[in-house]
């Protein structure tokens, strides 16, 4: 299999604690450390597209993500993304890209915190990406969702299927 | 989907440090903590079959595992297992069980250590189990292997395909 | 020796990550977990006075801390406190209390983060409190400082002696 | 103050998990990482004398420790040491060295485990070393003990005063 591409866009996943001012901020992606920690032997290429809170993600940011996914020669793409607007980005991607398997994932707790779900979600996304048919998906809470059938339940902090 | 069954058998995955004598030992499975950490929303049932080093796993132990997999009403079973004889157990399971998806997984570093690959492997196994066809597989290093096409490279500490 | 009293007032020390809104917040003190982690056999009583960012600590808050230290029957008191105004609180305490050993300490990184200095600082404060003469001190970075001879270097994120 | 010398001798403190054979082993001291984690600003020099389980410490090993303590120009020395024979080494040191403050400390859980007491004990030892008078001491469980008045309670896994 060709390599799996991972685009990092920021989100809670990559937040760190700035000890000089006591605020959360972005420094660099934790993906390399996580892949090492998981002893991944997959052929993976990581590229940071941006480092933003998904609530602050602009229309231009999303166009950039679409453009990068279109240009990408691998048919298998994972995007790490803030959870608050993950569904929105998935929707726009689905409108533009039909021939690739794209999975968006993230974390509820920053990886730099000891108690993060990030390593679990990455293991999950890297597994689903090897098998799922072309389409746009979200992987969280051990599950995968089609882009048009998922919402974030902000009260519970989980992703769930939309019951139509 | 019906629930996913997870059978715990011990292995490095569940080793803890006994501070009274300085040795590694088994106390109880860490699976519940990991599922919580990963914020899993999957319907999962955990059952501990034994707590042994896979190098000490006996023929009787393996018969017990086979029996439990046969009796299990769910068609999707994950077995956490020591890595040293994981391939051997997979082989025996494949001889007896044809109609279920069974994935064996484990860890190179105990979960109780901060730097374990266990959470990554669990996220991976729980994802593959939802999609793979009936058969016996091993999930490690972010990859899945058919039971008859894998070996542990003990020098490198990774699982790899057998090139015939 | 009589018990050592620890008053918790919040600060970075006790900050946690709220996964529902992605912000840092206070839930409860981590002191009990830290004492257990350090396998402390000291006779210690913990009491939470408030849970505030030290930049938001009011004059009333400080009066409450002074009052509690005055009322306290133990002669040995540790106060966990945000680092930004730790020196200010120490100064006011020194004006009102002369007959007790009071140590203020805190953390640059929340304890809930795996990489916190909180356990180190607590081990340090609990040790100094057993030996130092009555007075008000700050313990950070492995050192102890008299209240009138210390400042936080906000650029470096460390406490240092004032060279007069 | 002149620098504080830390001699590392191994013990549970520095044990790591060898993922290739599943056993605990020594690789290198974790002291530098701990000092960084604690944001220590103390003038400290670390030197590894040996990496042994204290149950395997030989008479020659102890002579080497004594020799190094005698040769050391700093009057303040911390020795990280396995807990099982820490009291024995303290006793021999006390017979040979009278003019220095020497503190032995260690850990019940390896530092590489997330749940270690090592960072707490190091913060404690580094604090006591700055104040205690010349003599040989053990620092564990947040307390300090004179060399001739302490024993390890192996049943409880704690150090305690000998009640004569």
- By oligomeric state, this entry counts as homotetramer
Largest sheet of chain A: 6 strands, mixed
Give the helix/strand class of chain A: alpha/beta
Averaged pLDDT of chain A, please? 96
Placed side by side, the strands forming the largest sheet of chain A appear as 4-1-5-6-7-8
Strand-helix topology:
Four copies of one chain form a homotetramer.
Chain A: E1 4-10, E2 15-18, E3 23-26, H1 31-37, E4 44-52, H2 59-71, E5 76-80, H3 86-96, E6 101-105, H4 118-128, E7 135-140, E8 143-146, E9 150-153, E10 158-161
Helix pairs in contact in A: 2-3
What this model shows, in words?
The structure is a homotetramer of 164-residue chains. Chain A has helices spanning 31-37, 59-71, 86-96, 118-128, and strands spanning 4-10, 15-18, 23-26, 44-52, 76-80, 101-105, 135-140, 143-146, 150-153, 158-161. In chain A, helix 2 packs across helix 3 (86-96). In chain A, 49% of the residues are buried. Chain A is globular. Chain A is built from four helices and ten strands; from the N terminus they run E-E-E-H-E-H-E-H-E-H-E-E-E-E. In chain A, a hairpin with a 2-residue loop joins strand 7 (135-140) and strand 8 (143-146). The first copy, chain A, starts with a strand and ends with a strand. In chain A, the strands form three sheets. Chain A has a six-stranded mixed β-sheet, with helices on both faces. In chain A, strands 2-3 form a two-stranded antiparallel ribbon. Chain A has 164 residues and is of the alpha/beta class. At the A-B interface, helix 4 and strand 10 of A face helix 4 and strand 10 of B.
